[in-house]
Amino acid sequence: SVRNGAAGGQRGQARIAGGFTANSNISVTANGTVSLTVSGTPGTYQSGGPAPGQALIGNFGNGLSGLVGGNISITSTHGDITLLSDEDGGFVSIGNLGGATTTSGNVLVSALNGTVSIAANGGVASSFDNGANATLSYASIAEIGNSTSTGNVTGNINVNAKQLTIDASGESAVATLGHLGDNAAGSQSGSITANISQSMSVLASGDSSVAQVGHWSDVDTTGGETGAINITVGTACHLSATGDESRAIIGQGGPQFRSQG
To answer: For 106-134, what is each residue's pLDDT tens digit?
Structure first.
């Protein structure tokens, strides 16, 4: 876990990655709980304090490496796997990040005796970029899947657990099982499979929040989102969007409908 404590507007970051090679396979197995958490004092970034933190498992290119990939396997044999972005603008992810042309790799997350939880509780952090002469905003994001702001994103995603919870409770927060893109010409592709022996919940309670199973882009894109979604649930599957203009979605593509609270 990482708690925001970076000085001078820099992001505090905790990461498990494949080293200097941006396409290495990553495998983590724990007997107990695997936890990725970002927490901090809300609002510090807006007032010039520490920037939002990041907790990540995956390879990365920061938009500089052409191809970023490698398969990722995270297993808890007797515990839970939890992703919690509990800070304004915080980012928590299991997946590869930031290839300039293609970000790929299969992602397997398995907690057969526990819960897989993807939760974004933080709100929006903002900062003024002197170079761009603009105020930049960062939503709180928790994700299982690959993501990039440039190029295409691909790879299959598999989750196996007793329970699966996807919960976006912060304002404009994003909690997602799927790939994320932010490129007007990029595509997001690959199958998503969830085998849940008990229950599954997709909850969007924050205003303008998104809780989703599926790939999507944060901007209009000509690339599109494709891939089969296969979900098996032993008991109940619950979707709820209670925040104003919130979205709880199972499906590919960006949010196209909004709740009225």
So the answer is: 999 999 999 999 999 988 877 655 555 55
Q: Report angle CA 54, 60, 63 to the nearest 5 degrees.
A: 105
Residue 209, C-beta contacts closer than 8 angstroms, at least 6 positions apart: 120, 168, 169, 170, 171, 172, 173, 174, 175, 243, 246, 247
Instruction: Supply the pTM of this predicted model.
Output: 0.89
Q: How far is the C-alpha of 216 from the C-alpha of 105, rounded, in Å?
A: 17
- The tens digit of pLDDT for each residue in 48-90 reads 555 678 899 999 876 555 688 999 999 999 999 999 999 888 8
> Do 213 and 249 meet the contact criterion of CB atoms below 8 Å apart?
yes
**Contacts (Cβ under 8 Å, ≥6 apart) of 224:** 187, 188, 253
Spatial contact of 123 and 173, defined as CB atoms under 8 Å apart: yes
Half-sphere exposure of 13 (CA within 13 A, CB side): 12
